Amino acid sequence: MNGLGKGIRKVEVSLRWDPSPAGKPPSDLDLVAGTYLASDPHGDAAYLVHFDSRSPDGTITLNRDSEDGKGFGWDEVMTLELDRLDARYARVVVGVVIQQRSGARTFADVANVGLRIREGYTVLAEDDFGGVLGATAATVAEFVRGETGTWDFRPGVRGSGTDPATFTRTMGAARN
Questions:
Q1: Is 31:113 a contact under the CB 8 Å cutoff?
Q2: What DSSP string runs through the chain?
Q3: Would 77 disulfide with which of 29, 64, 117, 147, CB 3.0-4.6 Å?
Q4: Phi, psi at residue 61, to the nearest 5°?
Q5: What is the DSSP pairing of strand 122-127 with strand 137-145?
Q6: Backbone Cα Rg of the chain
Q7: What is the pLDDT of residue 2?
Q8: CA–CA dist 21, 135 (Å, integer)
Q9: 96 phi/psi in degrees, rounded to 5
Q10: What gap in Å lies between CA 90 and CA 133, rounded to an integer?
């Protein structure tokens, strides 16, 4: 909780990485968010937000998308307006996938990867993916709606060795 018990309201998830060295294929990392219904919070995502998409109600948007890490500062930025999300949604999971077009790539193969999650000017989490260097994708945040309707943030980077399509299907599954 933050503020006067209003929970998490509007969050920005930012991702950065350095471009690949000359002569190497570009590294393409993507932010993805899945929303989960209160009736099935660990089942299939009700919808996904990623490059070339946004949430049906406009509450989750990808503001910046990079295919090569050549942006200034943060290469990918996603905004989640949790306070506007319909009450039927109880959970939002955010992940990062590495596109595998040019062969198998892990976080160890991408230079200077960084993640920042913040609400306003308050940094909720930062990470460099050092704990999941062998992974091809990772969940980076979970937001859960409490009984009073406020949203709580559950930090943690959890790696996955699956391809992007499998990852987006399973990123919201219950953890052991």
A1: no
A2: --TTTT-B-EEEEEEE-PPPPTTSPPP-EEEEEEEEETTSTTSS-SEEE-TT-B-TTSSEEEEE--SSS-SSS-SEEEEEEGGGS-TTEEEEEEEEEE--TTS---GGGSTT-EEEEEETTEEEEEE-SGGGTT-SEEEEEEEEE-TTS-EEEEEEEEEE-S-HHHHHHHTTSPP-
A3: 64
A4: -135, 145
A5: unpaired
A6: 16
A7: 42
A8: 21
A9: -130, 130
A10: 30
**Taking the model in full, what pTM does it have?**
0.93
Query: Which two three-digit tokens encode residue 11?
Result: 């969050």
Query: Tokens 């953890």 label which residue?
Result: 175
Tokens of 144: 């859960």
Q: Which residues of the chain have a pLDDT value below 70?
A: 1-5, 176
